[in-house]
Design brief:
Blueprint lengths: L8 H14 L5 H30 L3 H25 L16 H27 L5 H17 L21 H13 L4 H26 L2 H12 L2 H6 L6 H19 L6 H15 L3 H17 L6 H29 L13 H4 L2 H17 L7 H12 L8 H24 L4 H27 L3 H8 L10 H8 L1
């Protein structure tokens, strides 16, 4: 178990390498965003490396050790040389807590208290559910064990005989677990537990830090409270499912896109980073491919307002270029390894499902009921969001308007796609909705919160207007202005 942390050194180095190349740190708060991106992106790169290794040499420990030492050393040397040649970036002094209104100080304190208690609860649940829940046993960790134990027969993990384990499901989660075991030479439950914790912590940190940079301190803390206050986020993470990791990549792609739009001279590397992160969502879960395609379509249609089609396509090339490496891995897996086509899309088409009004009503009611009670709040989260919007008002920054349009379009396409999947599902509709819908909503929840708080007016501005004070209260506007240049 003590060797498990060692196996994550290379993923963290890989994440550090990729993020630092594609993400230019320009302010103190953007450094925090970089740190939040590193674990998830590193694990995504590591899983792709493991897959290529399996295709070439099988689950070879010696080959993996040599590859990691070589690549890891190259990353460290590159970063050292790069650090020497880069000009030092401007560092902003920390904002004095006593310079903020007392209500903002209380909000900040509440967030850190909730974050600490959530971390404790998360760790307790990890210990109590050390092997995760059903999907962890029957899908993700099962495949990891086949890959680790199977040797030359690792492909048996994707046999159609194991149809219950969904042989077509993408491999980011199981290959990270298997890669950790291959490196240490031993199966340990600590590996999958650590991966789940890293994704949950990174999602929270990324949501808070990105909104602090793009909007205000209070905006970030409010979003963090709503995320951590949603019990499903804390409960499902220790289950070792792939929904929280998928949600991380949705959010990370959205944040990268927002940072790209927030610069007057847009850094195309951030657009490529958004493409890479969106493609990793597809490498995490099948629903991630729906998100990836929805983001591409929405950006083309809504993200380049007033520009000709040719220009839009040319600009999208950078996004697609960032996604190419992972898309190639995804296609290789689907073409060469996946033992069966997707169970829903490959099911016998039934026209009566599509034209059954009762199915539409049943699915619509399930969506409405799940949305109303989502997160386990004593008051519906929809009511809380409406109150928040009414109390704070709307204030959209012009530079993030393309991002907001893109994300709203993406979320709409994703919801329509998920709704349609339930209409055509070959499984018992009531069972499928009850067992799946809440987890699908959890995937998009961080991205929805990010989009919502890009639209809502920062509490600092609302308080300043209400008390007839200078609206430019101390907040991360300095960092936002830094991004604008």
């Amino acid at each position: 178990m003590l060797l498990a942390p060692v196996s994550f050194i290379f993923p963290l180095l890989a994440g550090w390498m990729v993020v630092s190349v594609l993400f230019r740190v320009q302010a103190r708060s953007s450094s925090l965003i970089l740190l939040a991106l590193i674990p998830g992106l590193g694990l995504g790169v590591f899983s792709c490396l493991i897959f290529i290794l399996l295709l070439a040499l099988g689950p070879s420990q010696s080959a993996l050790v040599v590859i990691e030492i070589t690549l890891g050393s190259a990353v460290v040397l590159y970063q050292v040389r790069r650090k020497r040649t880069l000009q030092p970036t401007q560092s902003h002094a920390p904002i004095a807590l006593n310079a903020e209104p007392r209500i903002i100080q209380i909000l900040t304190l509440c967030f850190y208290l909730v974050a600490a208690s959530s971390m404790i609860a998360f760790l307790i649940l990890l210990v109590r559910r050390s092997h995760g829940e059903w999907d962890a046993w029957s899908i993700w960790n099962l495949k990891a064990r086949y890959v680790f134990r199977g040797g030359a027969y690792w492909r048996d993990a994707f046999s159609s005989v194991l149809g219950f384990s969904h042989p077509d499901y993408p491999l980011l989660m199981p290959l990270n677990v298997a890669g950790s075991w291959i490196l240490t030479g031993k199966e340990t439950i600590a590996s999958s537990a650590a991966i789940c914790f890293l994704f949950a912590a990174s999602t929270t940190a990324l949501l808070v830090c990105s909104l602090r940079t793009l909007r205000s301190n209070a905006q970030g803390y409010l979003a963090g409270l709503l995320l951590l206050g949603s019990s499903l986020f804390i409960i499902e993470g220790p289950w070792q499912y792939a929904d929280v990791p998928a949600g991380f990549f949705y959010l990370a792609a959205a944040v990268s896109l927002a940072l790209y739009d927030a610069t007057r001279q847009s850094d195309r590397r951030l657009f490529a980073l958004a493409g890479l992160l969106a493609s990793l969502a597809a490498w995490t879960k099948n629903e991630g491919m729906l998100f990836f395609l929805a983001l591409v379509v929405s950006r083309l249609v809504l993200g380049f307002s007033g520009q000709p089609v040719r220009t839009r396509i040319q600009k999208m090339m950078q996004f697609l270029a960032g996604s190419v490496p992972v898309v190639i891995v995804y296609v290789l897996f689907k073409a060469l390894v996946a033992g069966a086509p997707n169970d829903i899309l490959s099911a016998e088409p039934r026209v009566d499902r599509i034209f059954s009004l009762s199915r539409y009503i049943q699915v619509a009611r399930a969506f409405g009921s799940e949305l109303w009670g989502f997160g386990g709040w004593s008051v519906s989260i929809l009511v809380l969001l409406v109150i928040c919007l009414a109390a704070l008002g709307v204030a959209v920054d012009p530079e993030t308007r393309p991002t907001i349009y893109t994300l709203l379009g993406t979320l709409c396409i994703v919801f329509v796609g998920l709704f349609s999947i339930f209409i055509i599902t070959p499984y018992d509709l009531a069972w499928h909705l009850d067992s799946t819908l809440h987890r699908l909503l959890l995937q998009v929840w961080p991205t929805f919160l990010f989009t919502f708080f890009l639209i809502v007016r920062p509490p600092e501005e609302t308080l300043a207007a209400a008390t007839q004070q200078n609206p430019k209260l101390p907040n991360p506007d300095q960092d936002r202005q830094q991004w604008a240049h």
